[in-house]
Amino acid sequence: MRFLTDAGVSPKTVEFLKQLGHEAVHVRTLGLQRVTDPELVDRARADSSVVLTFDLDFGEVLALGVLDRPSVILFRLTDERADSVNQRLSTVLAERVAELESGALILVEDTRYRVRKLPIGRAW
Asked: What is the domain-level CATH number for residue 49?
């Protein structure tokens, strides 16, 4: 799986994903740390990447755009250090690969995570 990590996500998480065998890149590596959220979404869509972020605006971008891609993992953690993020991320990746591949917004919290299939608002 391919990942694009937003500016607030530690480069240590990029390395963690690479160790798991994924392709991962940080926005700083691409010189995209100052692009708008919609521009980052467009880049992730073009690259078929999952976005990792702490930025709540990504949920709004997906909802307003009625997009089915890219998948976004949105962290809402008390402890935002890389070790904590990586631990919660490993749980999501172990349990929700199918949803990430088909298009989902996953909100990761300290003790749980919630999955919304994309596009948001679609009747199931």
From this structure: 3.40.50
